[in-house]
Amino acid sequence: MKKLMIALSAIAAAVGFTATAKADISVSGSSNVAYLSTAGDGANDEELAVGNTVSFAMSTTTSGGIGISSSLALSTDYDGNNSQTVDGGNSVTFTTGGATIVVGDVEISDTIGSVGGVVNGPLDDASDLDSSVGTGFVDDDGTGVELTTAMGSASLNISYVSNDNTDNFGALNSSAAGADSAMSASITMPFGAYSATIGVADSDTGESSSGASVSGTIGGGTVTVGYSNVTTITGNADITTAGDSEVIGATYVMAMDADTTISVGYQSAKDADSESHTQTDLSVERALGGGATVYLDLRNLTGDTAANMDGTAIAFGTSVAF
Amino acid sequence: MFRSLLLLILVFSFQSCSKGLLDGDLEKNLKAMDKMHGYCNNPYRTFSKKEKKICEDKERAAGPDGEIGEPLNITKMIEDFRSGGTNTVYQGMSVNKNLWEASLILLNQYPLDIVDSQGGFISTDWIIEKENLNQRCLIKVNVTSQELVSNGARVKLLCEEKDGDIWYQDNISYEEEEKILTLKILDIANELSVTEKLS
Measured between alpha carbons, how far is A149 from A100 in angstroms, rounded to an integer? Predict the structure, then answer.
């Protein structure tokens, strides 16, 4: 019996060590399989999209209570054939009780208020629907710092990109042509049963944006309404005339039961080229347990688009989280 | 230059504070925003593109109730059917989660005969060591508390000795061993609790 006790003690000791180490490095992943009926001219419009992603997250907490974390992911993308990529690892996040600071490759919030999309990744990325409306900055990420903090019940985010030509390594105040800086600020505050977000962004390229969104619970679901205005430049492939583009949109997400969610989205956009589009989304998801989900997504796009890239695309698929 | 200066001031102002401005609690605010946008689409949470994808898949798998249900295990269903349902597993939990998980971790090297999460009771099957085929023991753990407290788990060891073809209870008290096992469960439960708070 003593041997049994020693064995149990050894197991417990080993397990104790594992439990602690688990908090420092964790691995998660997901798989996706989707059948896509995409937009197009009728040829090669049925596709199968399969992808897998594994993410390694590392974190620790100093004796002073500052959390430090980073992550790196390996994936085979579902929207490209044999497309293996490494993603992340370009930034480190520091967390205190009052603030989160990201250093490295950060992205400014240049499209605050641009809402309306609810479909899942495979249809969102590979629907072959392609609007000719240009919105957003030409480059909205680069080497910089992002700060998120609380001001009472409101949350504040300030992002600063010092050099949009580099990500995790580069000159902070580069004099090279095209190495621009950009900044965004947004604040979210609750009012009653609603939550409002307003934000602005500005870039040395001459681009700027402002926008707002309001979210709240209505009729058992969550509705979000948003408006975004971006002053664009011609570096965007969809924009031949610099000027203002506008996006107005809304989403409604409702639980049908403990495992089923239905989401609808609407978005109307126009840019300085006088091109416009209307996009309508529908998504129905059903959790199967064990990390698996099946979903049916539908997206309709009308208006100014590339040739044969308007109409309706449908996806039926499953995603599994590990 | 002005932007860099402003940001540096903000960074150094906030990095040592346990609270935000106006006594703001960032985590509490983020949780409130999660309810509106969902955890993964909360614009104030930072994810890489792939991390966000995994997060969305996890969130979707959890469904509106936020819980990932147990998958249907057809093999286990068949095994239970064949064995007449001797291995009983109850869903739900009315005892402390960390004490329960710690008990399972401690005993996971051994075949389990009964796992009753509702009643907080675990019993191993008979454990026989290769070197001593005439002795067998089983370990029973009863988690009795909803709180992580030192008297929240009880361990009982039962051993038998073989005489001929018949097993007899050895009538030996294993009080010291039971105490060691109880302390191990408490140690692991405490580790799990600390890990949970940090993550």
Answer: 6
Predicted ipTM > 0.90: no
Q: Which residue is it, tokens 């402390």?
A: B96
Among A3, A4, A27, the residue to mutate for chain B (most B Cβ within 10 A) = A4
With a CB cutoff of 8 Å and minimum separation 6, the contacts of B81 are: none
Q: Per-residue pLDDT for A23 more than 70? A: no
- Please give the span between the terminal C-alpha atoms of chain B, in angstroms, as a whole number: 37
User: Do residues B148 and B189 lie in contact, with contact meaning Cβ atoms separated by under 8 Å?
Assistant: yes
Residue count of chain B, please give it.
199
Residues 6+ apart with CB under 8 A from A167: A90, A104, A105, A141, A142, A143
Domain boundaries, chain B: 22-69, 74-198
Mean pLDDT of chain A: 88
pLDDT reported for residue B13 = 55
Confidence label for A283 from pLDDT (cuts 50, 70 and 90): very high
Which of the given ranges, A22-36, A216-230, B92-106, has the highest pLDDT on average? A216-230
| pTM of the complete model beyond 0.80 | no
Superfamily of chain region A2-321:
Porin (2.40.160.10)
The domain spans of chain A are 2-321
Give the β-pairing of B112-116 and B89-90. parallel
**How far apart are alpha carbons B104 and B86 in whole angstroms?**
19
Q: A45-50: which pairs have CB atoms within 8 A and are 24 or more residues apart? A: A45/A128, A47/A126, A49/A78, A49/A79, A49/A122, A49/A126, A49/A315, A49/A317, A50/A76, A50/A78
> Do residues A283 and A251 make contact, with C-beta atoms less than 8 angstroms apart?
no
Contact A150 B58 (CB under 8 A): no
In degrees, to the nearest 5, what angle opens at C-alpha A90 toward C-alphas A85 and A93?
A: 130
pLDDT digits (tens, 9 = 90+) for B140-192: 999 988 888 888 899 999 899 888 778 888 888 888 888 889 999 998 988 88
A279 CA to centre of own chain: 18
Q: What is the pLDDT of residue B79?
A: 67
Helix (H, G, I), strand (E, B) or coil at B98: helix
Q: Mutual orientation of helices A2-22 and B175-198 as an angle, nearest 10°? A: 10
- Residue A279 pLDDT: 96
Q: Do B54 and A30 touch (CB under 8 A)?
A: yes
Find which of B60, B129, B174, B192 to mutate to test the A interface (most A CBs within 10 Å of its CB).
B60
